[in-house]
Amino acid sequence: MKIPKMGMLLRFSALRLIKLAIIGFLVVLMTFIPVRIAIANIQAPQPQAILTLGSWLDREYFTAQFATKHPNLEIWVSSGTSPEFARPIFRAFGIPNSRVHLDYRAVDTVTNFTTLINDFKSRKIQHLYLITSAYHITRAKAIATLILGSQGIIFTPLTVSSNEPSESWLRILRDICRSLLWIFTGRTGASLNSHF
């Protein structure tokens, strides 16, 4: 009977330890976000603000119309149309400028969420209405579940109808990976956006 060498045993143990660490990491990840979402759902069962993923006038128009039915909610528009077009839409529905936060820091859908996280957390917002176009909602929900969920914020999605085809699974998968990157490193991988 041949006795295994000590170095081989150590390598086997190290590989086993790495596998266990990866499994443990995945288990924590798969339970961490759902637990935070469950807690937020208990603490804030009703939306406390509106977040619109901008860049299309129809989204802002929909948001303004919707906001008239929810006069106590602040409105956040991330990288929407310029203020000279957006503000008149909200004013036309009687919504004062003080209620509308136009934010232009985001460069894509992932950063729509990451640039506003601290604003929501500082205002103790745990539940948002999330407004975007129907073709874009699958990707937006995937990103929001990870980014907002990791911070204990839940969302209720609302869609603006559109004639665009749904986005590709490749774009959705790319932005899921970017969202995970942000959760663990604080970086969004925005430069990856131009490669897909």
UniProtKB/TrEMBL annotation:
Q: Give one Pfam family.
A: DUF218
Task: Write out the transmembrane intervals.
Answer: none
Q: Give start-end ranges for the coiled-coil region(s).
A: none
Q: Where is the DUF218 domain?
A: 49-162
Give the protein's recorded name.
YdcF family protein
Organism field: Floridaenema evergladense BLCC-F167
Q: What is the lineage of its organism?
A: Bacteria, Bacillati, Cyanobacteriota, Cyanophyceae, Oscillatoriophycideae
